[in-house]
Amino acid sequence: MSILRDDVLAELEAQAIELPSWAFGNSGTRFKVFGTAGTPRDPYEKIADAAQVNRYTALAPTVALHIPWDKVPDYADLRRHAESLGVKLGTINSNTFQEDAYKFGSLTHEDPKVRRQAIDHHLECIDIMDETGSRDLKIWLADGSNYPGQADIRGRQDRLHESLQEIYARLGDEQRLVLEYKFFEPAFYHTDVPDWGTSYAQTAALGEKAMVCLDTGHHAPGTNIEFIVMQLLRLGKLGSFDFNSRFYADDDLIVGAADPYQLFRIVFEVIRGGGLNNPDVAFMLDQCHNVEDKIPGQIRSVLNVQEMTARALLVDHEALRAAQLSHDVLEANRVFMDAFQTDVRPALAEWRESRGLPADPMRAYLDSGYFERIADERVGGVQASWGA
Ligand code: PSV
Ligand code: MN
Ligand code: MN
């Protein structure tokens, strides 16, 4: 008998992880962007690559777009293209960090003309959402300053609120805004949305259609991220995740690669807080693959999330609760670690096969010949303009 009970399998079957279109483009550091064969030349090809991940894993039914990186003349056509490949278009990410006008801020800028430009960009993103059928507008701001005294940090919060209000007012009934925080970079002294508290305060001031986006790479080293997950779920304000992993700062490496135990702890709190497969919480990857192949990098990522979810679903809640109530510290920790240390890979492979999926999605993709085909067909790929 499988170690994965039916209730666990039912949860795993419903799991969906959104892929970022930019993960399929070439990316790198400020030192060098290494090109790879077969890199997509336009958003259509990025979506085709993302569909491969879903094809072999059944875990990635949606693809997030970044505007203007994924600008196309006809979004309804892009939507049809995605749907013909078995995926849908997901979150629309805005971009106010690559234009000269935004050197000293966007939605927080002192100059009303620059704020207008930034607000209009978000309104255009919502127009696009209407066509793509997307629910979420994700806003990450590079706004901040480098030196104490450089900026009126209080006035910027007020202007941020006003700008967000105008964007919020344009959202349709089924649409949402998720505000992502990040503690530093590209600004090194202060950032206007640096932490979950600021994102919470700003989104709470807007209303129910505004939620917090938690990017796992956007915290100071040592931060207890699962505590933040727990708190935001308690408050009903956790809108989405950007998953990735990091050793140092915002490394955007493969989720679960640096610290699988942290991923397990995060997913455990998601389950505990009723967030797993709750439509109000979106799970997205925000990664780039600088040196590894991109489609396999994304396949590995979604499988890592699936594995840690399966392990977190195995925690014996009754035994854990009993140990907590009797203050049996070591037993509580043993119950927790027992689930984390369970190897679920053979059971997952067996379950995949029973659903008509390849037992080993990575092998199946590598053997499919897709990479060789795109490497032949596509010459001169686009670079995912990774500015931050
Ligand atoms: C910049 O840090 C960033 O990685 C944010 O996490 C956004 O989600 C992403 O870029 C795309 O704009
Ligand atoms: Mn992010
Ligand atoms: Mn980031």
From TrEMBL:
Gene3D superfamilies: Divalent-metal-dependent TIM barrel enzymes (3.20.20.150). Its EC number is 5.3.1.14. It comes from the Bacteria. InterPro entries: L-rhamnose_isomerase, Rhamnose_iso-rel, Rhamnose_isomerase, Xyl_isomerase-like_sf. One of its GO terms (molecular function) is manganese ion binding. Keywords: Cytoplasm, Isomerase, Manganese, Metal-binding, Rhamnose metabolism. It is an enzyme of class 5 (isomerase). GO terms for biological process: L-lyxose metabolic process; rhamnose catabolic process. PANTHER family: L-RHAMNOSE ISOMERASE. This is L-rhamnose isomerase. The gene is rhaI.
